[in-house]
## 1
Amino acid sequence: EAQVTQNPRYLITVTGKKLTVTCSQNMNHEYMSWYRQDPGLGLRQIYYSMNVEVTDKGDVPEGYKVSRKEKRNFPLILESPSPNQTSLYFCASRLLAGGPPYEQYFGPGTRLTVT
Amino acid sequence: GNSVTQMEGPVTLSEEAFLTINCTYTATGYPSLFWYVQYPGEGLQLLLKATKADDKGSNKGFEATYRKETTSFHLEKGSVQVSDSAVYFCATIHTGGFKTIFGAGTRLFVKA
C-alpha cells in the first residue's frame, strides 16, 4: 500500500530535550516536506527536500533541522524544543517530474507537546 | 508572495443543505489549486485539484472551478452529508512547484 508513515504519532517532551520525528514514504517520491498545523493558521511549511541531500527552508524553519540521506526518509529534528513548537506535524511527499498538479500525499500526523 | 484566504469557520449545516466554502488566492504565474480534506484524527487527503483557468475539479460530489479573473477557487457541494464533517483546506503551489501555501482551514459540521 502506497503511504507516508510518521513516528511517533504522539510525543510529550520537556523543553530542551532533543527529539526526532521520522517520516518515510514508499512511493519513490523525490519531493518531501514537513508542515506544522496550528489553530487558525492552517498548515505552514517548515522544510522541504527536492531529492537526496537537497533541502530548503519553508516559511517557518526556525528551531528545526532536517536531513535527506535516503530518498524514502526525511526526519525532522528539534535540537532544543521549546513550548512554542507544540503543534501537530505532518510529513508529505510527491513526485517532482511530470509537471502540475503536484498532488501531495500526507502522513497521519505527529502531535507534539513540549512542556 | 503567494497567499490563500479562506472563509472562517466553523460552518454548520443541516444534512442535504448546499455548501460553499470561499477561497481566494494571490500568486504569480499560473499556480495549481487544491482542496484538501482532513477528517478527525487523520492527515490531509486530496479532495480535488485544478491546474489552469476555467478547469473544474470534482470528486465525491464536491466541485471547484479555477477562476483566474477573480482569483478564486470556491468549494461547493449540492447536498452535504454528516460524513462530510471535516476541516477543508484550500492550497496553492508556489510558482516552480516547491512551496505549498495553505489557507487557515474551514471546519464544517453537518447535523443530521
## 2
Amino acid sequence: GNSVTQMEGPVTLSEEAFLTINCTYTATGYPSLFWYVQYPGEGLQLLLKATKADDKGSNKGFEATYRKETTSFHLEKGSVQVSDSAVYFCARIQGAQKLVFGQGTRLTINP
Amino acid sequence: GAGVSQSPSNKVTEKGKDVELRCDPISGHTALYWYRQSLGQGLEFLIYFQGNSAPDKSGLPSDRFSAERTGGSVSTLTIQRTQQEDSAVYLCASSRVAGEQFFGPGTRLTVL
C-alpha cells in the first residue's frame, strides 16, 4: 500500500545533541516528501520538502535527503535546541494533492 | 495576509448531535483540504476540494461525514449523529494549485 512509517517516540535529547528521526515510505513512483512540525499550542507547519530522488530539503538547521534506494527521508539536525521541542510528522503526497502522514514523533529537548 | 482560520476552536457536543465545523482558507487558494488528528489514527486525510471540480471524498470515514465549499472559498464539515470515536482535532488546509498546504489551528471536537 501507500504509507509512511516514522520511528516511534517520544524522543528526549539534551541541547546540542545530534538528532535523527527515521522515516520510510511505500509508494508507486516517486512522490514528493515532506516533514511537518507542530510546536506546542501551534498549528501544523511545513518544515522542509523534497520533490525528487536525491533532493535534499533543509530549513532551520534541519535536513532530509530523498533516498529512493532505501525509500527513506530521515530528518537530521546537528545540534538541537530547546526551541526544537515539538511533534514532527513525515508525509508524502498521494494522488492529486492529499498528504499521507506518519504517526508523528514527539521530540523533547532538555537544557 | 491572514492565514487559514477555523471555527470554533473547541466544540463539545453530546453523542448523537450534529456538528458543523468551519474553515476560511487563505484568499486566492483554490484547493482546500480537511484532515483529522486523533490519538488512535494519527493524522488522516478526509476530503479535498479543487476549484469547481468534484471533491475527492475518499477519506471520509462514514456517510455521517459530509463537507461543502461555497463559492470556492469557505468550507463547512458536517458530522451527523456524532459518536465518541469522532472526537479529534479537525484540521483544514488550503493551497494554490499543487502548492504548499497551509494549515489552520484546528477545531478540537469532544463528543461526550
